[in-house]
Amino acid sequence: MREARRGLAETLSHIDSLLGDGRSREDVLDVGRLSLDSGVPREVVETLLEGGEPPAEDITDRIVRRFGHLRETRLRPDGSRHSYEEIAAAFGASRASLSNLLNSRRRTAGRGAEQRPGRSGGPLASTQAGIETFYFGQPNGWLSAEPETALDDALQSVLRGLEEQAADPMARLRHAHGLRRLAARAPQLAEEEIQLVTDWIDTILERRRAQDARGAQGAQGAQGAQGAEGEQGAQGQGVRRPGGQRAQDQGAPTPGADAPPRDVR
Fold first, then answer.
1. How far is residue 113's CA from residue 180's CA, in Å, rounded to a whole number?
2. DSSP string, 49-71
3. Is the separation of the CB atoms in 15 and 158 below 8 Å?
4. In the predicted model, what is the mean pLDDT of residues 15-21?
């Protein structure tokens, strides 16, 4: 629980650091979209973004609620909901297994109890995994994840976008160059050192692109020269001299030109 809160706080802090002057969280965070992606109710998303604590929720109630959220928001192409039979058949289960999950809601003990129940595996873990896979490959544990964890995961796409906009050297290492292992070690480096590494990689890539471009131009030039020579040869063979003779006939004797003069008596 504490780790989930810390992770969410760190993500929000990083987002804040990338906003720059004149922008606030409201400019980049769409509460409705975050609720859709995370399965966390809109009002709880707003509470978490403000640093508050979500209300207590039984883990089974959470699983059932998020299952209903998936059925309502991840629809068929025709706009209708997927049936229980269709979902269960996709992972070799029966409709009864889904009914068991939906009917296994447990309530927090005691009237008006405020304590948050401890996290457990929940009922029918294989059924949960099958549901998550059916709905477009939701990550394992999506149905039962704590609200802080679910929201943190949904915020990662926002964070990546801001990193790229800010040309963050770390983001360039992770995303533009795909050097995830190097990026993981980058916190040991100063910011100017990270910038130096990414600039060095950019220089190498730019040099390679320039070499490839010159090679492509050279190949095109060679092909053009060969084509020009062939065209000139073809034109030379087809040029006619005045009188209808071809240029290639130059120097060839005309009929009777070299014949000995006739002896006219």
1. 45
2. HTT--PPP--HHHHHHHHHHHHH
3. yes
4. 82
Position 15 scores a pLDDT of 92
Interatomic CA distance for residues 27 and 18, integer angstroms: 12
Which DSSP string do the residues of 112-157 spell out, in sequence order? Answer: T--SPPPP---S-HHHHHHHHHHTTTPPTTTTT--HHHHHHHHHHH
Q: Kindly calculate the radius of gyration of the chain based on its CA atoms and give it in whole angstroms.
A: 37
Sign of the Cα pseudo-torsion (59, 5, 16, 47, in order): positive
Q: How far apart are CA 134 and CA 87, in angstroms?
A: 7
CA atoms within 13 A on the CB side of 149: 13
Confidence of residue 111 (pLDDT cuts 50, 70, 90): very low
More confident residue, 14 or 111: 14
Residue 265 pLDDT > 50, yes or no?
no
Q: What whole-number distance in Å separates Cα of residue 143 and Cα of residue 77?
A: 23
